[in-house]
């Protein structure tokens, strides 16, 4: 019994100690100062943000892009009216060349006010892309902007000339990657954020 209690309690204590240490040594706080714990309003806000960005919070097959208070929702039908790009990539997972068609991500972000030719503090921007399964990846604004990076990042709605089925209806696809680890299947959310 003593061993069971120790295996349950020790990780909890270690986690609490690590959290307290990280909070007490936060930038701007004196070493060893009392950790600042979140108040009820901050906890509630975090829970609401977490719920609103959960998979399935958009309509089925819809992609919700948010930047602060601004947001836009995209579907295969609404993307069809926009200019499409084709990316030819080698997919290391299936060991085959594939051709994806879709809208440049930067073209969708521009509609919310993200600069397509970033300068200075614009490079503090990044996106978190999320699939319906909760899988998340991060891209910096420099990786997304063709003005800075020679690779492409698209919200794909077709592969090899056919609508996406198994990985869709929308998928985030990028060139210049050795393997598709940051491609997001069943793309449902993109949050634009800034480094603090």
Indicate the CATH architecture. Answer: Alpha-Beta Complex
Shape: globular
**How far is it from the N-terminal to the C-terminal residue, by CA?**
46 Å
Radius of gyration: 21 Å
Topology:
Layout lengths: L1 H23 L15 H13 L10 E5 L2 E5 L1 H4 L5 E7 L4 E9 H6 L14 E7 L4 E5 H4 L8 E7 L2 E2 L7 E4 L12 E8 L2
Give a written overview of the molecule.
With 196 residues, this protein is of the alpha+beta class. It has one domain: Oxidoreductase, molybdopterin-binding domain (Sulfite Oxidase, Chain A, domain 2). The chain is built from 5 helices and 10 strands, in the order ααββαββαββαββββ. The strands form 2 sheets. Strands 2-1-10-5-6 form a 5-stranded mixed β-sheet. Strands 3, 4, 7, 8 and 9 form a 5-stranded antiparallel β-sheet that branches. β7 and β8 (162-163) form a beta hairpin. 22% of the residues are buried.
Keywords summarizing the entry:
single chain; alpha+beta; 5 helices; 196 residues; 5-stranded mixed β-sheet; globular; 30% strand; disordered N terminus; Sulfite Oxidase, Chain A, domain 2; 5-stranded antiparallel β-sheet
What's the short version?
The protein is α+β, with helices and mostly antiparallel strands. It contains five helices and ten strands, in the order ααββαββαββαββββ.
């Amino acid at each position: 019994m003593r061993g069971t209690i120790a295996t349950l309690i020790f990780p909890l204590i270690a986690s609490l100690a690590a959290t307290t240490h990280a909070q007490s040594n936060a930038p701007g706080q004196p070493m060893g100062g009392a950790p600042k714990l979140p108040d009820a309003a901050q906890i509630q806000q975090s829970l609401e943000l977490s719920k609103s960005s959960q998979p399935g919070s958009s309509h089925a097959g819809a992609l919700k892009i948010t930047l602060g208070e601004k947001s836009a929702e995209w579907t295969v039908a609404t993307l069809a009216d926009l200019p499409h790009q084709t990316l030819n990539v080698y997919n290391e997972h299936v060991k085959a060349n594939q051709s994806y068609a879709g809208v440049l991500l930067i073209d969708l972000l521009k509609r919310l006010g993200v600069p397509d030719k970033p300068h200075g503090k614009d490079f503090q921007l990044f996106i978190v892309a999320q699939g319906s399964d909760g899988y998340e990846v991060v891209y910096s604004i420099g990786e997304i902007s063709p003005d800075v990076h020679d690779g492409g990042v698209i919200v794909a709605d077709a592969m090899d000339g056919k609508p996406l089925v198994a990985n869709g209806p929308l998928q985030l696809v990028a060139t210049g990657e050795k393997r598709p680890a940051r491609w997001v299947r069943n793309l449902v959310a993109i949050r634009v954020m800034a480094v603090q």
